[in-house]
């Protein structure tokens, strides 16, 4: 809502700078987007009197004008506007003046003739083209005859005004009008506003009822009020300049006297009004109802619209002629030939209008106000004010009486609140008088009984109906700056992370310590990417109405998002990337729309984690590096059950020979491996290693019971075994066998060499382990260890076919 | 020559030899030559047999004195030489300490996580619990229970991704607050929760809009919670994130779930309130929305608004990060360009 400071001064005595006023409004009422000064940046733009205007000898459209600009001699200006003529008062941009869009005007020559400046149209002064009246759009603007040559032009066309652009929140619909804003500012500055009065003259010879009839079929909730006035003998013409200025400074385009008058009253009272061409009505008959299925209406903008049964329509002889509260119909539009109008002042249900505006994508000044509410007590006044103004501007006559389709008994709300309640909520120590004074400034009639206020809320403040609303009024008018600043007191509470939150935080730190940087990717992705890498079968949760297929489904995995991140980096020549992500994935649940949200943690590494340096060669990441990261991370979780890695060919997106499922005990908790070359190609990434773990499953695992073990005072003994073994036998199988057969004193089995190069027969590999033995209670005897070691060697040979070397 | 004189001579000669020994080996040679079993001092001592019993102790004492003196000189010289040798070696071992150290890969937290963690810690210090609700919510909890019935105009402020008519991607982390309210046992003390998390809005991604972003919302409900408490809390948040050199102003706003509702602005840190492009010439930057919990919200959760009251606030870490670090495109947070991520390597 654009508020003209000049217009505001009709209501209030305000002499503070506009910026200060804006700041006050912002701190007390609603947000202000800015103060617009239409003349800002414009210089040396003055009134000119065209004394002489002759055609340019070398042009078919230019004119050479002698213009009085208040100096001793007239100046010569060449002008191309079709409407330039002697005797006109015009807008002159003098040499070295600044006009709109930061344009400087200089003395020049036009086809050989000197031009000392320029005659201007409104848009050349920076007017938005959408606000320029159509009748002056094609030429220069003609000023009133009494404009004084040489004076700055701004005051003649409202450009000296300052306009406060307010961003009104949905609850303060009352401020979408000059009257409402004036009431608000009156309260802020403790003034008595001068409100507009209506001076309506009805023609006693003509009764509106005789020619116009209105019935409302829609229910009272949908249409609480519907009234009309009939105005006859009107002449459609442009509005006087004062009205045009108010209209364009409010951000609307002046159209004609009738439309401008309804818009003016809309701005003034916040009451939308609609003028129908009376002669287009059938038998002067109007009815209001919900649209029927299949009905159509061509609106003012020329669109033929299919009406919905939730749309309220104004009909004539039961044929829709207007989309109620939203937009008029083309057939009943006021045209240059209109001689009589039926003027509607009505209230429609906010929800219904909202729906209609939304369904038809028709958001107008009217619908915006209906959606936010209307002052029910002002509808008829606004209707009368508009009728009076139209009659005045169009030389028309207002027939006697209001034709009432529906009326409503408007009762003000009464809200009770105690002083102690106000102070309790605000944390203040306001006195009875301070609060009473605030209600007085708001012009809310109030009675005080003890410390309880009984406040009558005028209909113009329909946003207030409960005590909390009154507390807000007190708080903002008292000033938020004046509130004390404290912290909550009361019973202390413990603030700490729960186990899941703590593990998530720890997990992030561990990943970062391992060299992975945290990524936050999009949860919404394509259906294919959402499904990829899923740890178990699940439906994908899809948006009902996605904006694009790229963001249409909720992910079942984190890896695909990380691969997208890697691809983004790859495309920017960042080939060494190590990322992890911690976040939710969304698995479907039987019989439920809402998926189960599971915390996962995943990593993706491509290139080298350590880059080439003066003393280090870059080492490309491989399976064992990422596995090491996963293993180190899992170790830190101190799970009770053993962790095992089982080769898996079950993940279609993963390398079938380089992927392991990760188990804790018998529970599958994730996987690690290299992505399939086909996956890499599809995602446009290079060789990449990934892991994904179900963090919730890990958190649910029993933790290792930690107990101090005495550190043995006795020395340990080691034995090394090297063996040639079938390639298919896994390290896990060998370690398990050694551990099983190792005897009571075997403490540790450490793989220290893997070799399958030269001198190793095909299909075989050479492995070497160190076995460490130690006794808690005594020094081990060599013989004892040899016996135990031999048992292991025998088992390796017999069970796994190892050839001990 | 008397034995004493001989000893004196040996001493002087020995001290001179020790002094001139310029390597450890020479010092050792001197030692072996002088003090060894076959050395001259031993020989002198052997000659003591021929002395009278009166002279013997005197010469013996003198001989010991000379031996100790020589030994001390040898030790001293040896230390000197060892130190010199060590210094020489150290000088030779000098390296260029400005060469880069060997890398240990080190990752870092996402900048949004850093802001969330910072505020979580601040609020946990004040006894708040951290609550993570579901990202897929019911319309009922995300809107209706927060006093946003269907067809409420304020719903326009939050375009929503729906999965079905009733199920949606949460548009605000306060979607979980009705659950916190209805599950809280007030006999155990006030409800104080902070809800950080991902939220979604049906927006086309561009420099200032993202269909996915983050929110941190706080809620406190107790018998004696005041708007002054809210103001104090908001100032604390602003100071934590921007420093305490800036002013905070509250101004009226509108949220359906609070009444009164306010927005908090902080003095523009870029221009110190003078007005610049960052603050759109206003001198202020909007950072928080807040208010006193609407009585209807409490009532819907089965809490008597006559007895209990509270405040709620919400802020966007993405927006914070953009303001604080001058990030000009919100998409940076979700594209995970390592050249972007690696710029935010420490908390705060």
Strand numbers in spatial order across the main sheet of chain B: 1-4-5-9-8-7-6
The chain-level structural class of chain A is: alpha+beta
Order of helices and strands of chain B: HHHHHEEHEHEEHEEEHEHHH
What is the number of strand segments of chain B? Answer: 9
End-to-end C-alpha gap of chain A:
91 Å
Keywords (chain A): Aminoacyl-tRNA synthetase, ATP-binding, Cytoplasm, Ligase, Magnesium, Metal-binding, Nucleotide-binding, Protein biosynthesis, RNA-binding, tRNA-binding
Protein name (chain A): Phenylalanine--tRNA ligase beta subunit
Subcellular location (chain A): Cytoplasm
InterPro entries (chain A): aa-tRNA-synth_II/BPL/LPL, B3/B4_tRNA-bd, DNA-bd_dom_put_sf, Fdx_antiC-bd, Fdx_antiC-bd_sf, NA-bd_OB-fold, Phe-tRNA-ligase_IIc_bsu, Phe-tRNA-ligase_IIc_bsu_bact
Structural account:
The complex is a heterodimer of chains A (805) and B (348). Chain A has 20 helices and 41 strands. In chain B, strand 6 (248-255) and strand 7 form a beta hairpin. Chain B is rod-shaped. The model of chain B has no long low-confidence stretch (mean pLDDT 90). At the A-B interface, helix 2, helix 7, helix 10, helix 12 and helix 13 of A face helix 5, strand 1, strand 2, strand 4 and strand 5 of B. Chain A: Belongs to the phenylalanyl-tRNA synthetase beta subunit family. Type 1 subfamily. Chain A: Residues 410-485 form the B5 domain. Chain A: It comes from Lactiplantibacillus daoliensis. Chain A: This is Phenylalanine--tRNA ligase beta subunit.
Quick summary:
The complex is a heterodimer of chains A (805) and B (348). By secondary structure, chain A is of the alpha+beta class.
Throw out a few tags for this protein:
heterodimer, A: 805 residues, alpha+beta, seven-stranded antiparallel beta sheet, seven-stranded mixed beta sheet, 26% helix, 30% strand, B: 348 residues, two-stranded antiparallel sheet, 40% helix, 18% strand, aminoacyl-trna synthetase (chain B), Phenylalanine--tRNA ligase alpha subunit (chain B), cytoplasm (chain B), metal-binding (chain B)
């Amino acid at each position: 809502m654009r508020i003209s400071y000049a217009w505001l001064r009709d209501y209030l005595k305000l002499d503070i700078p506009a910026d200060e006023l804006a700041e006050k409004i912002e701190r007390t009422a609603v947000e202000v987007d800015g103060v617009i000064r239409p003349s800002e940046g414009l210089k040396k733009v003055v009134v000119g009197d065209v004394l002489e205007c002759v055609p340019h000898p070398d042009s078919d459209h230019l004119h050479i004008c002698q213009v009085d600009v208040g100096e001793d001699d007239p100046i010569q200006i060449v002008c191309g506007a079709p409407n330039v003529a002697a005797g006109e008062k015009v807008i002159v941009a003098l040499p070295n003046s600044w006009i709109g869009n930061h344009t400087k005007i200089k003395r020049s020559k036009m086809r050989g003739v000197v031009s000392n400046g320029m005659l201007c149209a409104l848009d050349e002064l920076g007017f938005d083209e959408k606000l320029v009246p159509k009748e002056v759009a094609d030429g220069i603007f003609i000023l009133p005859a009494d404009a004084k040559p040489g004076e700055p032009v701004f005051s003649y066309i409202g450009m000296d005004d300052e306009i406060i652009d307010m961003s009104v929140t949905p609850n303060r619909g009352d401020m979408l009008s000059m009257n409402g804003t004036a009431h608000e500012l009156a309260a802020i500055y403790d003034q008595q506003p001068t409100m507009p009065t209506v001076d309506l003259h009805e023609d006693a010879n003509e009764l509106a009822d005789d020619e116009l009839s209105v019935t409302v079929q829609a229910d009272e909730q949908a249409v609480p009020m519907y009234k009309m006035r009939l105005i006859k003998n009107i002449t459609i013409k442009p509005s006087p300049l004062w009205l045009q200025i108010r209209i364009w400074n409010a951000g609307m385009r002046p159209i004609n006297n009738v439309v401008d008058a309804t818009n003016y009253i809309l701005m003034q009272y916040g009451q939308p009004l609609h003028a129908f061409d009376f002669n287009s009505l059938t038998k002067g008959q109007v009815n209001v109802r919900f649209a029927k299925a299949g009905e159509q209406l061509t609106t003012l903008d020329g669109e033929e619209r299919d009406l919905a049964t939730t749309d309220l329509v104004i009909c004539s002889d039961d044929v829709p002629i207007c989309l109620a509260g939203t937009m008029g119909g083309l057939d009943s539009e006021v045209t240059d030939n209109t001689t009589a109008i039926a003027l509607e002042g009505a209230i429609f249900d906010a929800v219904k209008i909202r729906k209609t505006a939304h369904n038809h994508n028709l958001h107008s000044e009217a619908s915006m106000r209906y959606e936010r509410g209307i002052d029910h007590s002002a509808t008829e006044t606004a209707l009368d004010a508009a009728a009076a103004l139209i009659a005045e501007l169009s030389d028309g006559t207002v027939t006697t009486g209001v034709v009432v389709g529906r009326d409503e008994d408007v009762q003000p709300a009464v809200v009770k609140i105690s002083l102690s309640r106000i102070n309790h909520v605000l944390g203040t120590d306001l006195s009875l008088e301070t609060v009473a004074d605030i209600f007085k400034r708001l012009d809310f009639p109030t009675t005080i009984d003890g410390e309880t206020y009984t406040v009558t809320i005028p209909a113009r403040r329909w946003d207030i109906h409960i005590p909390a609303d009154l507390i807000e009024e007190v708080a903002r008018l008292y000033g938020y700056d004046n509130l004390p600043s404290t912290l909550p007191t009361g019973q202390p509470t413990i603030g700490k992370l729960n186990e899941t939150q703590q593990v998530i935080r720890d997990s992030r730190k561990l990943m970062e310590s391992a060299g992975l940087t945290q990524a936050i990717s999009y949860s919404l992705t394509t259906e294919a990417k959402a499904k990829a890498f899923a740890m178990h079968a699940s439906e994908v949760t899809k948006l009902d109405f996605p904006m694009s297929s790229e963001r249409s489904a909720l992910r079942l995995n984190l890896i695909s998002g990380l691969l997208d991140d890697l691809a983004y980096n790859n495309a920017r020549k960042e080939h060494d990337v190590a990322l992890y992500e911690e976040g939710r994935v969304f698995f479907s649940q039987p019989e439920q729309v809402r998926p189960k949200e599971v915390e996962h943690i995943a990593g993706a590494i491509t290139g080298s984690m350590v880059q080439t340096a003066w003393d280090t060669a870059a080492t490309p990441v491989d399976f064992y590096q990422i596995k090491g990261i996963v293993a180190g991370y899992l170790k830190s979780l101190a799970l009770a059950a053993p962790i095992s890695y089982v080769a898996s060919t079950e993940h279609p997106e993963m390398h079938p020979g380089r992927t392991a499922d990760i188990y804790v005990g018998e529970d599958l908790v994730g996987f690690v491996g290299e992505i399939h070359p086909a996956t890499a190609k599809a995602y446009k990434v290079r060789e990449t290693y990934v892991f994904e773990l179900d963090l919730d499953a890990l958190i649910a695992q029993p933790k290792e019971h930690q107990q101090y073990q005495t550190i043995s005072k006795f020395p340990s003994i080691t034995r090394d075994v090297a063996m040639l073994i079938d390639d298919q036998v896994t390290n896990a199988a060998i370690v398990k066998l050694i551990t099983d057969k190792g005897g009571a004193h075997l403490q540790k089995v450490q793989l220290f060499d893997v070799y399958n190069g030269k001198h190793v027969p095909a299909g075989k590999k050479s492995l070497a382990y160190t076995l460490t033995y130690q006794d808690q209670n005594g020094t081990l005897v060599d013989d004892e260890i040899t016996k135990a070691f031999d048992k292991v060697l025998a088992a390796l040979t017999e069970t796994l076919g190892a050839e001990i070397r | 020559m008397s034995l004493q004189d001989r000893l004196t001579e040996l001493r002087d000669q020995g001290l001179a030899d020790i002094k001139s020994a310029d390597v450890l080996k020479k010092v050792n040679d001197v030692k072996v030559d002088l003090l060894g079993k076959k050395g001259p001092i031993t020989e002198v001592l052997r000659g003591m047999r021929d002395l009278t019993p009166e002279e013997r102790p005197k010469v013996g004492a003198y001989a010991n004195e000379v031996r100790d003196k020589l030994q001390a000189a040898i030790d001293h010289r040896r230390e000197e030489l060892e130190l010199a040798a060590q210094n020489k070696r150290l000088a030779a071992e000098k390296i260029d300490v400005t060469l880069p150290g060997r890398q240990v890969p080190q990752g870092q937290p996402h900048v949004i996580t850093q802001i969330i963690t910072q505020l979580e810690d601040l609020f946990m210090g004040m006894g708040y619990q951290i609550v993570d609700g579901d990202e897929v919510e019911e319309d009922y909890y995300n809107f209706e229970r927060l006093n946003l019935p269907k067809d409420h105009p304020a719903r326009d402020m939050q375009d929503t991704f729906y999965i079905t008519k009733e199920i949606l991607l949460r548009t605000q982390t306060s979607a979980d607050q009705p659950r916190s309210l209805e599950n809280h046992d007030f006999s155990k003390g006030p409800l104080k929760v902070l809800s950080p998390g991902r939220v979604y809005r049906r927006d086309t991604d561009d420099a200032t809009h993202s269909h996915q972003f983050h929110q941190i919302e706080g809620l406190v409900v107790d018998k004696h919670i005041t708007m002054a408490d809210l103001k104090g809390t908001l100032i604390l948040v602003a100071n934590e994130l921007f420093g305490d050199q800036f002013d905070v102003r509250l101004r009226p706003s509108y949220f359906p779930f609070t009444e009164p509702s306010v927005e908090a602005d902080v003095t523009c840190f870029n221009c110190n309130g003078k007005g610049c492009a960052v603050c759109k010439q206003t001198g202020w930057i909007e950072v928080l929305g807040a208010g006193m919990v609407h009585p209807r919200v409490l009532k819907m959760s089965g809490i008597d608004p006559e007895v209990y009251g509270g405040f709620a606030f919400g802020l966007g870490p993405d927006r914070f990060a953009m303001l604080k670090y001058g990030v000009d495109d919100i998409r940076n947070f979700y594209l995970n360009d390592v050249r972007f991520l690696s710029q935010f390597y420490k908390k705060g």
